[in-house]
């Protein structure tokens, strides 16, 4: 079986890319063959056809047009596939036989840069990891060039959780680590790519082996300049307040649990940024609040400064509206995908820098003047763009008009010829008429001779023989050309094409020049995005009456009149009830009781959100706040029941609790919302109690625990650092009224039935429930006596049917005690049991 030469070329190339969909460029299409074609046709819902390729049977084929390929590629890649783009690398017109083709780029889930699934207001990372102690992790946002690395003390699970927490779409790993990570990465929806690095990179950018592996992988797949990738900046996990991904979800920091949208999240609340870069930076800060007091105070000083200079703040906001996504634009400079329009956005952005700098330097507050000094006016790039680039260049280079008039004499001339060619010919006609005296001399054009001078028979004798060359004789006229005319003709006809070629070259030079400034421009971009987030903090502080937090040594926390900023904002005009939260070094565990819907979860979340905002360097929603610097936040909050993840709710609850208990230190904040709700009452209550005791005795972290189990409030007497609080509700006409006010002491009623009533369950059910409750309340004393709070030994599980309490002894019991069960055969056991039962009935 022999294939056509082209198919042989395909097969040779495909051998190098067995795990990729190979997009093979044929004219205006990318074609896929064999298995690739079958699978792609199914995924992309396009027609599967066949192609004669020399063999007996037609081979399966499908294809997508070149100009609309991006959408198809995105579909494949967003489903976790990889696409290799194979282009013609020679001009087909200039080659005989088969055109040379090469794979020019491999697009993978972590290296997809544009499309519907890619939002410019979020970072999209690709990472690499090497397991071992400690595990290394490195990651890059290919669009912006941001590159970071860290090490992780724990196991594979912590690594994958960390990767998910950072929004890493694809994780590159060495072969030996693949098996260990495979299952976990599937669970967390992270694409794993195995890569074997062939040679040492010798790059100054890298900080560890993981960053080297990542860079090598990027070079191998991207096959283009990566000059915008910044040196990896290495950080230790302890530099930041760590919030595991479950808690990020539970606290709705970036994504709302119910809608998956940004609305209703902390990021939505705080995002008063004016630029896409600022919006991304804000999310980075939410993901990684600081853990260093000096750095936090520094950010807060900037917020103070903006608040103290209202007008300046307004002017800076205004100036930032003209700042475009410089980081991504620089990515395009590096990838050579910059368009004229992009360059104009870059120019606009750079022009804002001197303005911003001047504004900041004028400020009275030293924090702002020092920021002003940090902004370096990119004078060389700015002036170059101002000189070279047209006012409003078109989107593509194809039509020309990108380069400004006056930048290149040669280009100006070509453009003049192009647009003014006709004028020039009209002028020539005039001057030739004057020179020769032939009044009806005309200049004309035909396809065969191009431009010519025409003289009617009667005027032919006036032709200037020294210059005119006879070209054609007609019945009543002669046509001539001159050297000057032919020269101009070529110029006029080629002018447009030449102008385009020249413009492309000039633009390419411009891009290359910008490329040499990438690293200083990136620093500038970073400063601008930081400025944007800080001004956004000030906007929020002002708009929502936030306060500057103070930080205390130790665990002391004192929030006065605190609010949940997001719930409050979502409530529009409804009144949010502010609440205090006081945790001292010797009372740092709160057990919160109160009816359903009273606001227990909201209260707990608001404490965590306040801490996070403070450590990001933002003002906080409270009258006053004195906070400890916290190292980790863990939450176990009911709402995020992970049905889609396939884990049972109760299992998930236990896994999250385990992560919190293993990970927490005395400097952490733990939030446990109704632990044990997912199992039977006594099971749940026992677990909750055991956890509280453990945290109290072994961890000592600031902890908020909410519960429905009123029995647990008795623990206050036994655990020194535990204090009962409750969210108050009152009852009016047998209906519950929520006050949302947190008060000292335990709640006295659960009000569950009233909430059911509010939800308009049928009255018959409500009445029956009330009746049952009354019955249970009668039995309650007896049940409670079985639940032992006096010893910390495990509590025995109690069946729901009351156990008969046997007083005195019974002969059957004596017989039972004397049996040697392990030495009996099953038949003996059965007989004995039969006998015992008979005796029992007799008594
Ligand atoms: N401080 C507050 N001021 C005003 N409204 C509040 C306050 N806290 C909570 N709410 C409102 O009460 C509703 C219920 O709050 P939340 O979910 O926190 O109650 P819960 O006690 O945790 O309920 P459950 O026990 O059923 O989980 C919220 O949706 C919110 O709108």
From TrEMBL:
Question: Does the record carry Magnesium as a key word?
Answer: no
Q: Where is the DNA mismatch repair proteins mutS family domain?
A: 668-684
- List the keywords (alphabetical): ATP-binding, DNA damage, DNA repair, DNA-binding, Nucleotide-binding
Any single GO BP term:
mismatch repair
Q: Which GO terms describe its molecular function?
A: ATP binding; ATP-dependent DNA damage sensor activity; damaged DNA binding; mismatched DNA binding
Q: Does the keyword Nucleotide-binding apply?
A: yes
Q: What are the binding positions for ATP in this chain?
A: 594-601
Q: Which GO terms describe its cellular component?
A: cytosol
The protein's matches in SMART domains, at most eight in alphabetical order, are given as: MUTSac, MUTSd
| InterPro entries per the UniProt record, alphabetical | DNA_mismatch_repair_MutS, DNA_mismatch_repair_MutS-lik_N, DNA_mismatch_repair_MutS/MSH, DNA_mismatch_repair_MutS_C, DNA_mismatch_repair_MutS_clamp, DNA_mismatch_repair_MutS_core, DNA_mismatch_repair_MutS_N, DNA_mismatch_repair_MutS_sf
Q: Provide the function of this protein.
A: This protein is involved in the repair of mismatches in DNA. It is possible that it carries out the mismatch recognition step. This protein has a weak ATPase activity.
What PANTHER family is this protein classified in? DNA MISMATCH REPAIR PROTEIN MSH1, MITOCHONDRIAL (PTHR11361:SF34), DNA MISMATCH REPAIR PROTEIN MUTS FAMILY MEMBER (PTHR11361)
Family statement: Belongs to the DNA mismatch repair MutS family.
Stated name of the protein: DNA mismatch repair protein MutS
């Amino acid at each position: 079986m022999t294939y056509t030469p082209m198919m042989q070329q395909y097969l040779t190339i495909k051998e190098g890319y067995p795990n990729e969909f190979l997009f093979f460029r044929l004219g205006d299409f990318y074609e896929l063959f064999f298995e690739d074609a079958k699978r792609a046709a199914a995924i992309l819902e396009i027609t599967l056809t066949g192609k004669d390729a020399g063999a007996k049977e037609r081979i399966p084929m499908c294809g997508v047009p070149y100009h609309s390929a991006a959408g198809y590629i995105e579909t494949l890649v967003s489903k976790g596939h990889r696409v290799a783009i194979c282009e013609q690398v020679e001009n087909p017109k200039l080659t005989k036989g088969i055109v040379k083709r090469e794979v020019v780029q491999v697009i993978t889930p972590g290296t997809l840069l544009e499309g519907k699934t890619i939002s410019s207001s979020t970072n999209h990372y690709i990472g690499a990891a090497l397991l071992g102690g400690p595990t290394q992790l490195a990651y890059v946002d290919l669009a912006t060039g941001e590159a970071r690395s860290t090490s992780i003390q724990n196991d594979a699970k912590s690594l994958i959780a960390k990767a998910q927490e950072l929004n890493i779409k694809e994780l590159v790993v060495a072969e030996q680590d693949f098996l260990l990570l495979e299952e976990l990465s599937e669970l967390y929806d992270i694409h794993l790519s195995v890569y074997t690095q062939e040679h040492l990179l010798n790059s100054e950018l890298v900080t560890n082996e993981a960053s080297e592996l990542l860079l090598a992988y990027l070079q191998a797949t991207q096959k283009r300049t990566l000059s915008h990738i910044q040196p990896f900046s290495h950080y230790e996990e302890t530099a930041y307040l760590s919030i595991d991904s479950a808690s990020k979800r539970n606290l709705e920091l970036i994504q709302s649990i119910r809608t998956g949208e940004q609305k209703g999240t902390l990021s939505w609340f705080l995002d008063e940024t004016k630029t896409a870069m600022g919006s991304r930076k804000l999310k980075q800060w939410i993901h990684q609040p600081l853990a260093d007091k000096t750095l936090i105070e520094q950010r807060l000083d900037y917020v103070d400064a903006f608040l103290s200079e209202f007008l300046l703040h307004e002017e800076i906001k205004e100036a930032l509206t003209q700042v475009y996504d410089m980081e991504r634009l620089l990515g395009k400079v590096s990838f050579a995908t910059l368009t004229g329009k992009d360059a104009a956005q870059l120019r606009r952005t750079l022009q804002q820098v001197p303005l911003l700098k001047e504004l900041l330097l004028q400020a009275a507050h030293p924090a702002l003047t020092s920021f002003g000094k940090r902004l370096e006016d990119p004078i060389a790039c700015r002036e170059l763009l101002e000189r070279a680039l047209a006012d409003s260049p078109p989107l593509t280079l194809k039509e020309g008009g990108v380069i400004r008039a006056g930048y290149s004499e040669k280009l100006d001339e070509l453009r003049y010829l192009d647009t003014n060619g006709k004028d020039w010919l009209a002028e020539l006609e005039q001057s030739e008429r004057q020179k020769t005296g032939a009044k009806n001399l005309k200049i004309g054009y035909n396809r065969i001779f191009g431009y010519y001078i025409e003289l009617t028979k009667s005027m032919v004798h006036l032709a200037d023989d020294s210059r005119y060359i006879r070209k054609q004789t007609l019945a009543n006229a002669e046509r001539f050309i001159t050297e000057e005319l032919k020269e101009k003709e070529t110029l006029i006809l080629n002018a447009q094409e030449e102008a385009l070629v020249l413009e492309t070259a000039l633009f390419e030079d411009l891009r290359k020049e910008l490329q040499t400034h990438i690293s200083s421009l990136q620093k500038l971009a970073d400063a601008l995005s930081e400025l944007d987030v800080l001004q956004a903090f000030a906007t929020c502080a002002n708009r929502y009456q936030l306060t500057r937090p103070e930080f205390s040594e130790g665990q002391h926390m004192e929030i006065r009149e605190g609010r949940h900023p997001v719930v409050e904002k979502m409530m529009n005009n409804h009144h949010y009830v502010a609440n205090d939260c006081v945790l001292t070094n010797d009372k740092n565990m709160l057990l919160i009781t109160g009816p359903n819907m009273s606001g227990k979860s909201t209260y707990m979340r608001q404490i965590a959100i306040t801490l996070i905002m403070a450590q990001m360097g933002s003002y906080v929603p409270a009258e006053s706040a004195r906070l400890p610097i916290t190292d980790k936040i863990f939450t176990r909050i009911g709402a995020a029941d992970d049905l889609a993840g396939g884990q049972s709710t109760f299992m998930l609850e236990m896994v999250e609790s385990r992560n919190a208990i293993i990970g927490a230190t005395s400097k952490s904040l733990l939030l446990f919302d109704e632990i044990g709700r997912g199992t039977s009452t006594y099971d749940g209550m026992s677990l909750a109690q055991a956890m509280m005791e453990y945290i109290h005795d072994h961890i000592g972290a600031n902890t908020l625990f909410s519960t429905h189990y009123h029995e647990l409030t008795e623990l206050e007497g036994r655990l020194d650092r535990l204090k009962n609080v409750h969210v108050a509700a009152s009852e009016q006409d047998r209906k519950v009224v929520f006050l949302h006010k947190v008060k000292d002491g335990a709640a006295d009623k659960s009000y569950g039935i009233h909430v059911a009533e509010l939800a308009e369950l049928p009255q018959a059910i409500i009445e029956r429930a009330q009746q049952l409750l009354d019955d249970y309340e009668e039995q309650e004393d007896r049940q409670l006596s079985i639940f032992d709070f006096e010893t910390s030994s495990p509590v025995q599980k109690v069946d729901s049917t009351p156990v008969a309490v046997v007083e005195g002894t019974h002969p059957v019991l004596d017989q039972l005690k004397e049996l040697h069960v392990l030495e009996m055969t099953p038949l003996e056991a059965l007989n004995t049991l039969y006998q015992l039962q008979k005796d029992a009935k007799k008594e």
